[in-house]
Amino acid sequence: MTARLWAAIAAVLLGMLLLVAPAGAATPTVSPPTSAGASEEAAETVQGTLRDPDREPLEGITITVTQDGQEIGSAVTDAEGSWAVPLPGPGTYTVTLDVSGLPEGVAPQAEGGEVLDGVTVRPGAAQGVIFQLGTGEVEEGGAAIPVARVLQLVVDGIKFGAIIAITAVGLSLVFGTTKLINFAHGEFVTIGAVTAYFLSTAPGNLPIVLAAVLAMAVGGAVAGGVEVGLWRPLRRRGAGLIQMFIVAIGLSLLLRHLILIVFGSRRQQYDEFSLQASWTLGPVRITPRDLVITVLAFAIMIGVAVMLQRTRIGTAMRAVNDNKDLAEASGIDVQRVILVVWLLGGALAAIGGVFFGLTQAIYSEMGFELLLLMFAGVILGGLGSAYGAMLGSLIIGLVSQLSTLWFPASLAYMWALLVMIIVLLVRPQGILGRRERVG
Amino acid sequence: MDVLAVLSVAVRGALGPEAAIYALAAIGLNIHFGYTGLLNFGQVGFMLVGAYGTAISVLSFDAPLWVGVLVGMACAVVLALILGIPTLRLRGDYLAIATIAAAEVLRYLYRSSFAEPVTGGVFGLVQFAGEFYAVNPYTAPLELGPLRFSERALWLMTVAWGITFLAAGLVWLLVHSPWGRVLRAVREDEDAARSLGKNVFAYKMQALVLGGVLGALAGSLLAINSQAITPDAFIPIITFYLWTIMILGGASRVLGPILGSIVFWFLLTFLDAFLRGAMSAGWIPGGLLAPSDIGAVRFAAVGLGLMLLMVFRPAGLIGNQKELRLDVR
Fold first, then answer.
1. What is the residue extent of each domain of chain A?
2. In B, which residues are within 8 Å of A252 by CB distance?
3. What is the pTM for the complete model shown?
């Protein structure tokens, strides 16, 4: 039983390692998917080279590929430790290493590391898979948590939290200015990621940086369009907040499934920067891409903060946030401020989507999955407070990553949501929220 | 395309066991939102504990099926208490987020690998409702023109619609009792109800428990219906379906969810069958829409329908706009 539990931990940890390909590690974790070449028919395989901790190849070990519990095929490593399993088509597979064949003193580095879940194989790709083998003595019982691993997870958590944070700022600002809980905010994230995907792949083939900037424009335009076309008329008609809340849920369903129709149900990656060798900074590994994304996310957060504090429109946003009627009475064009908030929120969500797509994958449900984490971050930080949303999201990112120290990684999001429920219990106004009489 | 065939599929959808089950869960939601004003967006969580309570009792503890259903309902009571204590004192929109999050937490928990020996993890559980089908009194399928219901479907429909109408009757009795009047007072003005010495929190909690138990019962029936459950069948979209059903029929109307469910499933299966027919007849170019997109079109249509309903007719088909003042707090 615990083996399964650890299998899940190890699978996702290894999944992370797959992304953050360790340059200095014994073996390259992922070989880039090579194209099937001139041959018309796509021949997908998973393949790899099995080596023991001393980099010596291991021969005669069975590796089995399954999908949804069905065995697809298996292979035995040859004298060079190489193995390859042909696949019926692209998709997501589980690759399992038969540990019983391993020599004495060699075991998966993480307990349960013999099972790799969710190996995504793209059309025509020969997907490289590597089992990290160690002496089998590390991380016994999880009693001693290596500092390096904690630091690594902190870095990953900050990166993830920063991405949540820039998406959540818009959600929080919209709530602050209109009191609407925008359930469709996650869809702006997906729209951003998907737009950048379509622009950066054929036939456009724009560089991802340019595609991301254009995606921000599209995200902002969609959000602004929804404000002008839907929310503003509804507010004029004096629609209640619950009514608008349910309209937002309908909008979220509609947008998400329109994206699903256009984009398809498969997870995709951007062409650029999808595989990078990582830099080793002391005990922590990070790919240049993730480092740039994290720095950019923080730069965007600082930019938003400066805008809120220093510019006229920022001051106006805070004024509307504090007291809409008073702001209106003092000559602020509230409708214009709200429109700007939507434009900004949509653009930030879109760039957050591109970041999320770069670090993980692009799929139609990504926004909705992120939305619940945004809610968690926003509530943790205090509903309506932009700074609270940033702080709360960072904490949520850290919690979800650090929870994998003790718990299966498949439950990482669950802990983030539980933190939110606990915060509601003890401090409903959140960390930076203003206390108000509730209930 | 055979119009009659499409229509008969749609009618089957409207009368089938699923429509009854969703109606039952929506009746629970109606107690939450329609009568008490609670924004419960985690009704699917109650269905999940109901379904798994039933299946696990039967499979892991060899309990009779009816005990399993009771266990499922008991789980819903526990869930309602756990969920209600932190959130019922909060403003409505907090409850909405907390409930949807709680339902997702449950789904993650039930599908996690460490729960797998009990819940079956992502693979779920199968074959636990043999007892139910063993006592099926129907021996022949029912055929009404193009409509055909198998004896299995008939038995399920009898039970599911029976329970649904019993629940509707119970709700009618409850909301016409003094208790029901307090509920509506809480919905209209919490402070006023509190100033009259009513324990608002307790009333909300009772409503949450009662609606949740109905949701769990619906979940049990859903599990019995398919004889197979996986956690990923209990996604937030189910809750949004229930909201659409409740609002379509008319919130805070006893028969609203039942009418809503029948109309909802009619439209949904009609759309589905129509699209499939139109596609095989070649009316829709394959480049525009592939058969695999039909599910997505369905969800998109539900979303659009929910939006239009909420914008233009928040009272639904038989609702009373005056009674339902849709506002937060």
1. 2-34+45-144, 150-426
2. 303
3. 0.79
